[in-house]
Amino acid sequence: MNKPILTGVVALIPVIFLSGFVLAQSAPVQTLRGAEVDEPIPLDQIHKNVEGRMQRNYRQQPPLVPHSIEQYQIDVRTNQCLSCHDWTKAGERNAPTLSMTHYLDRDGNELDHIAGTRYFCNQCHVPQADAPALVDNVFEPSSGN
Ligand code: HEC
Ligand code: HEC
Questions:
Q1: Is residue 9 one of the residues assigned to a domain?
Q2: What local confidence, expressed as pLDDT, does residue 97 receive?
Q3: Number of domain units in the chain
Q4: Distance between alpha carbon 134 and the CA centroid of its chain, in Å?
């Protein structure tokens, strides 16, 4: 290839890129949320909290949480559940106190503060919702419950 042709080819490259860009821009923009930006999409109603108390399914079940937990932060620095449920606060906040099992470390020693194994409350306690099972199961409580 001689020099002028080569220069011509090199000069064409940005033109090709630009036309590709213009083509991409002219394609219609697809919505990811399936609705107009100003159209509210309501949450799935099945996950609404159930009022009152739901019955435990078996005796040892961690009780379901009968109130919303949306606002309660749990992280390495703070656990807002404890601001009502810890034994030091439950009286004044009128909330059920954590049972003794929450103050036993894994060696069975009694502690004054929540055990590390019970720190992340919603590992075991979930808000009550009448939601379909994620995985089908045939669980039944033992007759001795
Ligand atoms: C503002 C105070 C407050 C905070 C914060 C709070 N709770 Fe409660 N909680 C209550 C009260 C009051 C009740 C009792 C409600 C009732 O009897 O209907 C309760 C009930 C419960 C119960 C049911 C206990 C039982 O014996 O059935 C569980 C479980 C529970 N809360 C877990 C949590 C978890 C987990 C968090 C944090 C994500 C939390 N709570 C944060 C006040 C609080
Ligand atoms: C490893 C699972 C687990 C974790 C984590 C856990 N709990 Fe529990 N919780 C249970 C079980 C099981 C019960 C019922 C049996 C019992 O009292 O030990 C219970 C009972 C309770 C009760 C009712 C106590 C009573 O005497 O009626 C409350 C309130 C409660 N938990 C709140 C909490 C809060 C708040 C946290 C976080 C600080 C938490 N739990 C962390 C398993 C757990």
A1: no
A2: 97
A3: 1
A4: 15
| Closest Cα to atom 43 of ligand 1 | 84
What would the pLDDT profile of 35-83 be if each residue is shown by its tens digit? Answer: 888 898 887 666 778 888 888 888 889 999 999 998 999 999 999 999 9
Structure tokens at 101: 């099992």
User: Does the CB atom of residue 89 touch ligand 1 within 6 A?
Assistant: no
Region class of 70: left (phi > 0), else alpha (psi between -120 and 50), else beta? alpha
**Residue 97 forms part of a structural domain:** yes
11: its two tokens: 């000069």
State the average pLDDT for the chain: 85
**Residue 28, SS3?**
coil
Please identify, by atom number, the ligand 2 atom nearest to the C-alpha of residue 81. 35
Q: What is the CATH number of the domain that holds 98?
A: 1.10.1130.10
Residue 96 lies in a domain: yes
Q: Which domain holds residue 96?
A: 69-130
Nearest CA to ligand 1 atom 11: 95
